[in-house]
Design goal:
11 helices; 2 domains; Integral membrane protein; membrane; transmembrane helix
Length: 259
């Protein structure tokens, strides 16, 4: 496995047709970083950027993202893998998909939770996507590699458990754990099997009052020791959320996301 990864890192991505995928990965990552920088400048009232409003309607960046993703998909089919159309399509899809997934939580809830704690779900989804694209960009594609090795098989078997672990961490309100677990699978697995955060959707649906008390006690002890560190890392990436709950009339979500 180590030799496969080392060889992939030094190979030229243009030699085996991986250039479009490599460009898609770079476009996706760069767009996410630029988008988060711009939105945080808008929120702080700094720089030349402002929210896009047309006819009193706030145009979220997921809208141009959908347009670019569709345009890239159509272009990809039309050029049938030929250059430079394939590379152009890859960049369009990378930019568009990044814009859409950056507002994943907003689209899921149909509410503007971008700067709420619930809105940081978008960062977990983007992190998982970057991890997957990064593996494929350096040539680790266990689903289509004809020279399948033991290392590739391990990745193929691990992938469903990896995704399930990250999603379980999100359901249990462990957002920081999900972010780290997107890149380090064992972190997600451990977070998935441990007690949920007391105010998470998982705890509300599946825990008895006694188990929620246990979860609350454990979360309190964990946060006293590690919570601020994990929260600072997450806020550094996603931006510090507002103090008010995302949905009026509902119990505020747990302000921490590790454990």
């Amino acid at each position: 496995m180590d030799s496969v990864l080392a060889r992939a890192l030094i190979e030229d991505p243009t030699e085996d047709g991986r250039l479009p995928l490599f460009l898609l990965f770079l476009a996706f990552l760069a767009t996410f970083l630029i988008t988060r920088t711009i939105t945080r400048l808008i929120r702080a009232g700094k720089g030349p950027f402002r929210d896009r409003v047309a006819g009193g309607v706030h145009i979220h960046h997921a809208i141009p993202g959908i347009v670019l993703t569709i345009a890239g998909a159509f272009t990809s089919v039309a050029v049938d893998g030929s250059s430079p159309g394939a590379e152009i399509a890859a960049v369009l899809i990378g930019i568009g998909a990044s814009l859409v997934l950056d507002e994943f939580a907003l689209l899921l809830r149909l509410q503007d939770v971008y700067w709420e704690r619930e809105g940081q779900l978008s960062v977990q989804v983007v992190s998982l996507t970057i991890a997957g694209l990064g593996l494929m960009a350096i040539g680790i594609d266990p689903l289509s590699d004809h020279t399948l090795s033991v290392g590739h098989l391990v990745i193929a078997i691990n992938l469903p458990f990896h995704v399930a672990g990250v999603l379980m961490c999100v359901a249990k309100g462990k957002y920081s754990t999900a972010s780290v677990g997107a890149f380090i699978p064992p972190v997600a697995w451990i977070g998935a099997i441990r007690l949920a955060r007391p105010h998470s959707a998982w705890a509300k649906r599946h825990y008895s009052s006694e188990k929620r008390e246990r979860a609350a006690d454990r979360a309190h002890r964990f946060d006293d020791r590690y919570g601020r560190w994990g929260l600072n890392i997450e806020d550094l990436v996603a931006g510090k959320p507002t103090a008010s709950p995302a949905v009026s009339g509902q119990e505020p979500s747990d302000p921490k996301g590790a454990a």
